[in-house]
Specification:
Elements lengths: L2 H11 L5 H4 L10 E4 L12 E5 L8 E6 L7 H15 L6 E7 L13 H7 E5 H6 L5 H7 L8 H13 L2
Parallel strand pairs: 3-4, 4-5
Antiparallel strand pairs: 1-2, 2-3
Length: 168
């Protein structure tokens, strides 16, 4: 597990409903989520985490979290394959989405063509660099974006985020 994986695991483990702050179109009062990080059978693929409905019968979709902080030409295919393994293993889940946290969606993640439909219909992108530059961006997303800030700019950016929270 990489350092960023551990950070996101820690961030969501004790407060899984934080994901609702980042995905405002999900109903905030629908029973919430519990966060897990399962190991999929076979070649052992580990998503960075999963959000599963806390209450049985909930209409909330299961969310597969992937944090990809650097370019990887195999990322799109790996994301697709891991999502397929998730569906094979979790046979009770019918509603699901993949949430990708990344600096920019335009990073070199590979050729999207083979998995274009999957990317278009199942993947939600949360881009950190645009959030870092946008004082009106969701505060949790801006806070996570601090991972990408240069050491020299970190104090000023942190102060901006704290000022923004004081006005909320």
């Amino acid at each position: 597990m990489s350092a960023s994986d551990k950070l996101f695991f820690w961030l969501f483990q004790n407060q899984p409903d934080r994901i609702l702050q980042l995905l405002p179109d999900l109903p905030a009062d629908a029973g919430g989520y519990r966060f897990v990080a399962p190991v999929f059978k076979a070649l052992e693929h580990r998503p960075d985490g999963m959000f599963l409905a806390a209450l049985p019968g909930s209409e909330l979709p299961a969310l597969v979290l992937e944090a990809q902080m650097q370019a990887d030409p195999k990322f799109f295919r790996r994301l697709y394959a891991e999502s397929g393994r998730f569906l094979l293993q979790e046979t009770t889940i019918s509603r699901w989405q993949v949430v990708v946290l990344c600096p920019l969606r335009s990073l070199a993640f590979g050729d999207p063509e083979p998995v274009a439909e999957f990317l278009e219909h199942r993947v939600r992108w949360l881009e950190l660099l645009p959030a870092l530059a946008d004082p009106n961006a969701q505060p949790l997303l801006r806070t996570m974006a601090l991972l990408l800030e240069t050491e020299e700019r970190l104090p000023a950016t942190t102060a901006q985020i704290q000022i923004g929270r004081a006005h909320v």
